[in-house]
Amino acid sequence: MTLRRGLIVTVVVLMIVSTGIVALPRVFSANGMGERLTNANFEEGFAPDGVALGWKRFDNGGRASYGWYDETWSQAILEGKHAQLIEINSTSWFPTDPDRYAGIYQTVSVVPGASYQLVINALMRTTEADMIASGYGYRVQYGIDYSGGQDWTAVTNWVDIGLNTEYARTKSGPYFTFTGNVTATGNRLTLFIRGWKKWAQPNREFDLDIDAVSLRGTTPTDSELPIVSLTVPPFPMVGAPLPVHIHASNDVGIVNMTLTDNGNVVCTTAFQVGILTLDRDCDWIPATAGPHTLRATVTDAAGTEATFTNSLIVGNMTEYLVNGSFENGFAANGVANGWTAFNNGGRAAFGYYNETWQPATFDGTNAQLIEINTLNMLDNDPDRYAGIFQRVTGLTPGASYQLTIRAMMRTTEANFKTSGYGYRVQYGIDFSGATNWQSVGEWKDIGLNDEYPRLSPGPYYTFTTWITPTSDSLTLFIRGWKKWANPFREFDLDIDGLSLRGYQ
Predict the structure, then answer these.
(1) 136 with 198: CB under 8 angstroms?
(2) Burial environment of residue 358 by CB neighbours within 10 A (0 to 12, 13 to 18, 19 or more)
(3) 263: which residues sit within 8 A by CB, 6+ positions away?
(4) Which residue in 240, 239, 244, 269 sits closest to 254, CA to CA?
(5) Category of 468 on φ-ψ map: left (φ > 0), alpha (ψ -120 to 50) or beta
(6) Domains along the sequence of the chain with CATH
(7) Do residues 315 and 503 lie in contact, with contact meaning Cβ atoms separated by under 8 Å?
(8) 9-27 pLDDT, tens digit each
(9) What's the pTM?
(10) Nearest to 210 by CA among 191, 190, 224, 226
(11) What is the pLDDT of residue 5?
């Protein structure tokens, strides 16, 4: 325990075993003077959406484009190596809308009745690069929600910070500094900062850089324990990246979060000034199968820790298709071992072969060749199908499995436009494990369009998707489709490198 400013220390112990939350002994903090904004200098990281950690974004949509970015151009930064860049542009809009807004906001804890000094440093870079030329068309404002609400449209007291200078988009200048005072009326308030593009002019860009923002004043008493939880997607697998979501909160702020896997650090987040609510996705790539313990530990502004533990089993990434490489032999009928052929007969000829011609294989020395032809049939039928299928067992219902199909088409026309997209490759799945291809409810096109000459193969096409079985078995069907009833045609479909990989 640590005494703070000579006060008597109050200790509280919390242990909630059922949820995995454990908070260590509590030390209340005394009021003092300090910064209330998290990541106020924008040096503590940015989220994937381009917004600084600790902040959130807003805009009013309409006929304009918006962007938020980590500003790293030294000429557009006041201090450090980062600033928050907010963009409003109408370069691709005609017509465009007037009064377009975009900004950032943050909710902080405060002391009712206390006064806080607000500092905003900003610079504007615009297409016009001159406030007279733009007709004062770009402004920077701030607004306060004194109840801590997060709806920027509910703010009625927007204040112009007085920034008039506009620089060229590619030639920056000095920052403008605004200073004011804010008096809190409750224990929360939300600061909104926004750029305003006034006029409905096309082909304009407004770049607003914000840096070194501050809201400094009395720090509130840290009177609540931190709370933390973590969420892991089901069925984790060795080597497969998973987003582990950490959620934590505290009445004054979370200053540190660490996620570990069996004691090894997965990710960390730290703030000089605590964030009231922390939501962080950590990329976790399990290295081994078997038992794992994920532990999220957070520390609040008073130094109190809380942890959440999740014990789980990591599965192996396993291949479920038999002979998907077609390197483990073929039956006498030309169909690869482990697979079964099907077609719909009619006035067409069908063939299945062990493809050993190296230019027509993806890898190894073998592929599955499926042929549909009407070479000796002046009268023939449209919509002729031929394919192979395999029943797969041992799956885990609800888990995700990656399906990969590699295929190549060689045709008489050797051009999909000439053939009128007359040849397609599809797959279908029977999630009950039944083996009647005509009972498949939905056939999906893999997107293969290229047709090569029959005697001049080209590169294989690779299709990948994820499927989720509803039982422990399914049947995978792959087929070629000759659409048109045209005579003297040959459709050669080569299939190789098939895979169905997932949780075991």
Answers:
(1) yes
(2) exposed
(3) none
(4) 269
(5) beta
(6) 14-27+226-314 (2.60.40.10), 33-218 (2.60.120.260), 340-503 (2.60.120.260)
(7) yes
(8) 222 222 223 334 444 443 3
(9) 0.75
(10) 191
(11) 28
